[in-house]
Structures are given as C-alpha cells and as structure tokens.
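How a chain folds remains the central question behind the approach discussed here. No coordinates are needed to read the tokens, only the vocabulary itself. For completeness, the protein is quoted in full, as a sequence line and a line of structure tokens:
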Amino acid sequence: MRGRHNVFGAALLLHLAAVAAAQVPGNPFAVAGEVTVTHTASDRWRVEYELSRAAVSIMLGPPTPEYHAGAWRLPEAFHVTVDETGYAYLERVDGEAFRSVSVEVQTWSDLVTYAPQPFGVFSDGVAINTGPLGFASRIGPNRMMMTFAPTFTFRGMPDESVVIPWAEPGSLERLDLPDSGVFVYFGSTEKMRRSESLYLLLDGDAPQALGDLVFESAKGYAGLYDHDLRDALAGPLVVLFSWSEGEPLGFGGGAQGNQIMAKGRGPADLEVDDAARRAVRSFLAHEMAHVWQTNLGNDDARWWNEGGAELLALRAMEGLGEETAAGMAADLSARVGPALEGLGRTSLFDAHLRGDPELNYSAGTLVMAAAEAATAADETPDDIFAIDRALSAIGPGDRRGSPMRSFRAVLRTLGASEAACEAIEIFVISPHGDPRAALLALFDATGLRYHLDGDSVIIDP
C-alpha cells in the first residue's frame, strides 16, 4: 500500500486472524446468508443483507466517517458506529440483533485514506469493493466475533457488463468470495486487455503509451515474483487502473487478494518519459509484491509489510534491469532523512498508531536493507526474496502471533548473528532519543555499508 510523496492514496489490506475460519457450509463460527449488490443508477447502489443467523453487527472496516456519512443511506433503525476496537460496524440503534437490512449507497470517488477503498471510478464503469460491505460479524449477547461468509449476487443496469475475471460469464449469483473482498466491475469491457496471466482494465481516458507500460510491467513483475517467491495465484492477476487529469504525476492504490486497485493522475499531454516509467514501475512492483509477500503480522508488523514490499520492489526492478546497484543505494540513502525525522516522533513499531505510517516506507525499508546485510554474515549473502521465502515456511499462526520472534528466527537461519538480530529488534520496537545514532548503530551491527558526508548518511552500493 502506497501513500508517500507523489503517491496520493492508500488502501488497507485487512488480515483478520480472529475471523479466519473456513467458509464452508455449516461452519459454526460463521454468519452466512446472502448479500445482493444491485447497480440501480449511475452513482447509486442497493446492498441487501439476508443473513443465515441473527447478528448484532457487521464489521465494515476501519472508521471512515466521511464515507459512511456521505455515501450510505441507512434505514431509520440502523446506524454505523465505532466501538472500542477502533472499527466501524453496521448495527441497529437499539442494539438488537437482525437478519435483514437494505442499504442505499452512493458511488464514492475519493480515496478513503487508510481504509479499504470502496469504489474505483472509471470513465466507462465503476468497480465496487465487496470488502467494506462486511469483513466480520458479531452475534449473541457476548458479541462473539464470527467469520462473515455470505454468498454474493451482483446485478447491473440494462446493457451493463458485470465482471469478476475468475467467474464464468453470467455466473454472478451466489458466489463465494474471499473474506478480504474483491472488486467487481460494472460497465463497458471494451478497454480490458487480457493475457493468460493478467487482466488489465485501464480507464479509457488514459494515454495509450501508459496503458502499454502498465500492461507489460505488470506481466514482467508477475513472472518474476512467481519465479523468485512462489506460485501465489489461483487465477489471473487483475489490475483495475483508473486515470484522471491533474498535477503532479502520481499513483496510488492497494493490493487485495489477487487484485490491484490503482489510481493514476497526470497531465493531459503526459509524456511517458524515464521519470514516468520509474513512477509506474515502482508503484506496480510494490503493490504486486503485496500479492506474493508472506504475511508476517497485522498492525504490529507494518514495518515488514511496507518496508519489505518496498525492498522487494527495488530488487524486482533490479532483476528486470530497471534498477542498478548504484540506483538502489541512492534510493535507500534518500530514505534516511525522512526516517530520522519520523523516528524523532515515534518508534517504527508504533508508527501506524501515532499517525506516521510513512515511517514504514522509509525506516522500514532501511531495516529490510539491514536485514539483507545481516544475513551475509556467513559469507552467503541473502536478499529480501530469501528472507520472504524462509518466512513462508513458518506457520501463519506463529507469524501473526509472534512476528518479531519469527523474523529473528529466519534471520538466524540465513546466517545473521545474534547481535544483528538484537539490533534489528531494538531498532524496530524502541523509541529513540537520538535517531541518527540509533540508525548508525543498526548499520554497524548488521554490516550495512555506508559513509558520512557531513551530516548526511549515504548508503554504499
């Protein structure tokens, strides 16, 4: 998920371990039933819930009051509330359980910061994200958290195509969807490009050269990640890419399952020059890394989720000849200043809680570079791909339950010393009164090469 410098949006990819029960018939830890999504007018939707059992609430994701207040029209008996967990829920005002409710929703064109993006708006259609329609549910007087596992039905307006690329044409009733949700596209498919491994829906107003670049870059990264990390996709990768005119050039969006929801912005006469190509490739390489990346933890491992994806992206660009060792060193060096500034306010571990998520992209990436250097202590350098593969061998419950312990175990397996592992953990979890000294101590302990140029810390190739 990206949201730094000219990248102007981010989407939250939720991993809810508490609701990870399998979506199977008769699952006692699930609320099933049916959700029907109907496109009633160009910017109007009806979402009808018919649940298999009475629920006291449906989790809609992180609190997004502007979106829910501005786009959702609820029956008088219902409201969206935020509880002590910090998440938003659809509930009855009187707190009673319910099995049925119909909600009117308006297309929301703005990016919802730090939350699941609800819509992707295209010139020829709209993609609605099913994730924010229900990530989990709660039942009973004790409000027990349950998997939200309904089937979904999608109905478009007359002469409108409804597309889920992995679903058979016309089979858009009673579909089982991943609990992280999918983007379902309503509209024209004339602009959709397809290959064996990729579906790209690029807004019809986007420059032709940009579309060519996105398509070829996405195919290249998919092939590299499949080869160097793991075969992660059960079906084709789906990239939904909307485009609007504006300044400056920027890209934002997020990964969700095997889908990338992307928004691009740039001048009408955009020239796809070296700077534009690097911006596109850097964005795609990062978001696609999330599709293949091993999940280490949730809120307590953002330093890995984002810092790891950043370094995976740089290594992927290097692997495809789009980045050099000198360019990578320059990129890492450019992160030092923002990292020191952010570490003066919060620890890396708490950055997401302190409203400083950009620290995961700056200091988090430097930690990953230090981890690479640490694994070379046995004279067999290992890169971020080897670290990710080793993490995938640890059970998901252990990774999510003890992310730092799992990370340290992997580094030791790949040759890192105990001193290096200790330095990495201290750097991640501790606040630093002197961030510069802490960063240099991290580099010294792990063997990441650098030199000083006045007050500047420069990473060496």
